Amino acid sequence: MKNISFRNDVLPLKNVLYRLALRITLSREEAEDIVQDTLIRVWNRRDDWEEMDSIEAFSLTVCRNLSLDKMKKAGKDNRPISDEEISAADTGRDPYERMIQRDRLEQVKRIVDSLPEKQKSCMQLRDFEGKSYKEIAGILAMTEEQVKVNIFRARQAVKQKYNEIDRYGL
């Protein structure tokens, strides 16, 4: 028998949930609201936890669905995340290298934000959250093959667009 604890099993997911909501909504405030709503909905289903295969997959699915519902209601188009959302790695040895690194990260973030929702979600869960194809398929309600195709297409699109920008300065 599983012994799932809200404190030990659900609350530690809040950062993963936030990143997923942020990737879909592109708004810090909306992502924070969605995480709160997700935690409330997961708590309200506590009587069903023992029957669930994965509380994490359930939580991520709820978060994704709430994020998509919020976007549909608002009728939002993709817009870039503000500069404060971009936490650039400080790997450069001098200010010029750090500036170049920050600009490259901003370009990649804009490219990822412009991807179709399914590709963006698959890429977020795989490349940033480290989920398996099987877990992503369960969370996003698609086959593992569809997940692989979406990730492949997302990576190809990011690579192609980044190279175009790098080559032509667009």
Short structural summary:
The chain is mostly helical.
Question: Layout of helices and strands, plus pairs?
Answer:
Blueprint: H1 6-10, H2 14-25, H3 28-44, H4 55-74, H5 95-113, H6 117-128, H7 133-140, H8 144-168
Give the CA-CA distance, first to last residue: 57 Å
Q: What is the global morphology?
A: globular
Following the backbone from N to C, one meets helices and strands in this order, namely HHHHHHHH
Query: How much helix is in the residues?
Result: 55-70%
- Count all strands and give the number: 0
Strand portion: under 5%
Secondary-structure content class: mainly alpha
Indicate the mean pLDDT.
83
Describe the sheet with the most strands.
none
Radius of gyration: 18 Å
User: How many DSSP H or I helices?
Assistant: 8
Query: Unreliable stretches, pLDDT < 50, 5 or more residues?
Result: 77-92
Can you characterise this structure?
By secondary structure, the protein is mainly alpha-helical. It is 69% helix and 0% strand. It contains eight helices and no strands. Helix 2 crosses helix 3. The protein is globular and about 55 Å long.
Short descriptors:
170 residues; globular; 8 helices; 69% helix
